[in-house]
């Protein structure tokens, strides 16, 4: 490429869907992630989406644990 030629514009950033964000957060909680999936997530998911999905995922996990404990205690 010659020095006086303009640089091509980078491709537009694709926006991730809710399922892709939820999958990324789940694998983050689980602690296992493939490099290829991580690279794709970095290019499509915004950090604020990860934070929001992480807080929702953590809240659902805690509520699930509370429900399980209440069911066990009620049946004991």
Low-confidence stretches: none
Structural class: mainly alpha
Question: What is the total number of structural domains?
Answer: 1
> How far apart are the termini?
74 Å
User: Largest beta sheet, briefly?
Assistant: none
Q: What would the principal axes of the Cα set say about the shape? A: elongated
- Classify the helix fraction into a percent range: 55-70%
How much is the average pLDDT? 85
Structural overview:
- The chain has 76 residues and is mainly α.
- The protein has one domain.
- It is 68% helix and 0% strand.
- It contains three helices and no strands.
- The protein is elongated.
- The mean pLDDT is 85.
Topology:
Blueprint: H1 18-30, H2 35-44, H3 47-75
Quick overview of this protein structure:
By secondary structure, this protein is an all-alpha fold. The chain is built from three helices and no strands.
Q: Which keywords apply here?
A:
76 residues, mainly alpha, single chain, 3 helices
């Amino acid at each position: 490429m010659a020095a006086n030629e303009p640089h091509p514009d980078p491709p537009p950033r694709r926006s991730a869907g809710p399922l892709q964000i939820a999958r990324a957060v789940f694998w983050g909680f689980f602690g296992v992630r493939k490099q290829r999936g991580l690279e794709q997530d970095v290019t499509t998911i915004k950090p604020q989406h990860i934070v929001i999905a992480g807080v929702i995922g953590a809240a659902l996990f805690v509520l699930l644990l509370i429900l399980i404990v209440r069911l066990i205690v009620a049946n004991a």
